Amino acid sequence: MMNHLPVLQVIIPLLAAPLCVIVRNGQIAGVIAVASSWVSLWMAWKIFQLVQVAGTISYNLGGWLAPVGIEYRIDTLAAFVLILVTLVGAVVTPYAITSVKKEIDESKESLFYAAFLLCLSGLLGIVVTGDIFNVFVFLEISSLSAYALIALGKDRRALIASYQYLIMGSVGATFIVIGIGMLYVMTGSLNMADLAILLPELPSNRIIPVAFAFLTIGVCLKLALFPLHVWLPNAYAYAPSAVTAFIASTATKVAIYMLLRICFTIFGPDFSFVKMQLGAILLPLSVIAIFSMSLVAIFQTNVKRMLAYSSLAQIGYIVLGISLFTNTGLTAGILHLFNHAVIKGSLFMALGCVMYRLNSVDLESMRGLGKKMPLTMGAFLVGGFSLIGVPFTAGFISKWYLIQGALEKGLWPVALLVLMTSLMAVVYIWRVVESVYFSEFGGSDADEITEAPLGLLLPTWALAILCLYFGINGTFTVLAASSAAANLMGVGS
User: Fold this and answer.
1) Which conformational region is residue 389 in: left (phi greater than 0), alpha (psi within -120 to 50 degrees), or beta?
2) pLDDT for the residue 444
3) What is the Cα–Cα distance from 233 to 307, expressed in whole angstroms?
4) How far is 18 from 426, CA to CA, in rounded Å?
5) Which of 65, 68, 342, 361 is the 20 to 30 A CA-CA neighbour of 154?
6) Angular region, 24: left φ>0, alpha ψ -120 to 50, beta rest
């Protein structure tokens, strides 16, 4: 069975999804979702260990050898992102069992778990596949299920947010499939490793740069890089709490993984960053995203929207690391990709606890909540400190590497910007702290507000503790990120 782990990683949640619909029972579907997500996490860890020992894993579906058949190909970067996606899935599914009972109609609970597992399966498929058209197929599976998950929010604005995401996502997917089509016409291959060999051998032409442009723009829309970000704030703000925590931690991160695969694996770093000068485009866009989105976050009164704009700034940090085109910068980007997923997952799950008790996450309604829900707000505080980059938290490690990468390139203004925007994060996190800890609870039902149930608290604190653990002992994340960065930078060299 160990030999088939790459394909089982995708198949198990994919088969569990229709099973959730068949049982038509929310509780049983929840158990199926939890079991499949935990099995996926176990498999991801085993795959990571295999990659560390044996190097890149290649799995040929149906015994058809690549490039004729479809190949699943897992290197250090893919294995690292697999752990990220399955870890978040394994934490969010038990959280969802309690959360969805409050936020989703009972008749739709089994459908929620089916869509959730489809989304998980699609994201895992994007990471493991070595076939670029397969990437598009799995991208559509994850995207379509994400649209449905967002639309399940009780607020009617969730439907508008889902529709807006659908339109923008469809535009991005169209750009991606056009780029894939151009590559196939020019090379006759869809296998990424094969494309990496064939593309440099082609005579100079205009089609390959155009295909590169279509692919990068489509993926940048999916990862919500400024100015292609307009779908994200509403999607995060009005989706059910468990959905927001999962999508914020995984969907944009897997899209960034796609960008890395396109730039470093398929086209190669020399073509992407020397000939096409991608870094010169990504660097200013990421800098604008970091500053402007941090500024917008400061003025939000809905804390979920505040964190949504914060996510756009953090995506800017990750893309900034990639744009530096150095081993240190790329390490910083991959490291922050992992750390930010854990951080933002803990923050959105803490807000889900607040939503469970208050049915609101507005700053005004959270006044004095620190005394009523000390464990919930304690987890939020840990995630907030990590988001800022306080020492001994995960956020500090990745921002430290990012500053190092900027200074290595002589970009000291960029390093100063990272420090300044971290102070801006202090401002918007402090607004929550001030409202929660330094104000009196203003609700008329003060006696009825109690701590969130354990079913929500335990998963939330699991991620909050990881924010501290990876800040104190970052050996695993730093080594994995630096190894992945070295492999990517070595492609085509």
Assistant:
1) left
2) 52
3) 9
4) 44
5) 342
6) left
How far apart, in Å, do the first and last CA atoms of the chain sit?
A: 36
Q: Which range marks the domain in which residue 449 is found? A: 278-493
Residue type, 34: V
Decide: helix, strand or coil at residue 262.
helix
- Rg of the chain, C-alpha, whole Å: 21
Q: What are the pLDDT digits (tens) for 32-44?
A: 999 999 999 999 9
Q: Amino acid letter at 211?
A: A
Asked if residue 21 is part of any domain, the answer here is no
Q: Is 17 domain-assigned?
A: no
Task: For 401-455, write each residue's pLDDT tens digit.
Answer: 999 999 988 888 889 988 888 889 999 999 999 888 887 776 556 567 788 889 8
Instruction: Report the C-alpha gap between 417 and 413 in whole angstroms.
Output: 6
**Alpha carbon 327 to chain centroid, angstroms:** 22
Total domains in the fold of the chain: 1
For residue 233, being part of any structural domain is answered with: no
Q: What are phi and psi of 73, to 5 degrees?
A: -130, 120
Q: Is residue 350 part of a domain?
A: yes
Residue of 333, 303, 314 lying closest to 435 (CA atoms): 303
